[in-house]
Amino acid sequence: MTYQHDRRQFPPRGGPPSSGRSFNRQTPSLPTDYLKNGYFDSNDHIFPEVIIEWPRDIAKKLDIAGIGATQIKNFFGEARRIEGQLSSGQDFDALRGRILQLDAYAASSQTRGNAPPLFKQFIEQNLKWAAKDRRSFINGFIPHFECVVAYFPKK
């Protein structure tokens, strides 16, 4: 179906159907033992792989899988907004629902063809730890996600 304006025809609004976007057919996966022990070691220091190795690997795989930088930045922006609310004194338990909603947003993005399955897996795995407590979210998830965004190729 097309729309007519004057005598020119325009394709339907909203771009191609979601099946029009094709992500890389290879199924990239998260790193081995990814977040197996969370973000912190026994001394409550962030694991080096959380901010260097894993973000570099995940950013590369997400780029190959075909996700756009804007999509990742939108999710990171929402995480930052939640962080801001926590930093301004709002109760973590009151915001836990907003943190957990990131999983539904990632599933929706995948269903609409805006994100590959790897991105949904990334969000899902992180929320297991990020929704645990304020410290895990602010000092673990946010720096980790920030590094994924930083390592994502600029095109």
Radius of gyration: 18 Å
Mean pLDDT: 88
Instruction: Label the overall shape.
Output: globular
Main β-sheet: number of strands, strand sense, barrel status? 2 strands, antiparallel
How much strand content do the residues show? under 5%
Low-confidence parts lasting 5 or more residues at pLDDT below 50? Answer: 1-6, 10-20
Total number of β-strand segments?
Answer: 2
Series of secondary-structure elements, N-terminal to C-terminal: EEHHHHHH
- Summed up, the helix count is 6
What is the gist of this entry?
The protein has helices spanning 48-51, 53-65, 69-87, 92-111, 117-130, 134-151, and strands at 3-5, 8-10. The protein is mainly alpha-helical and 155 residues long.
Q: How would you characterize this protein structure?
A:
This protein has 155 residues and is mainly alpha-helical. The protein has a domain at 52-155. 57% of the residues lie in helices and 4% in strands. It is built from 6 helices and 2 strands, in the order ββαααααα. It has a two-stranded antiparallel sheet. β1 (3-5) and β2 (8-10) form a beta hairpin. α2 packs across α6 and α3 (69-87) packs antiparallel against α4. The longest helix has 20 residues, at 92-111. The model is unreliable at 1-6 and 10-20 (pLDDT under 50).
Write the layout of secondary structure elements.
Layout: E1 3-5, E2 8-10, H1 48-51, H2 53-65, H3 69-87, H4 92-111, H5 117-130, H6 134-151
Antiparallel strand pairs: 1-2
Name the descriptors:
single chain, 155 residues, mainly alpha, two-stranded antiparallel sheet, 2 strands, 57% helix, disordered N terminus
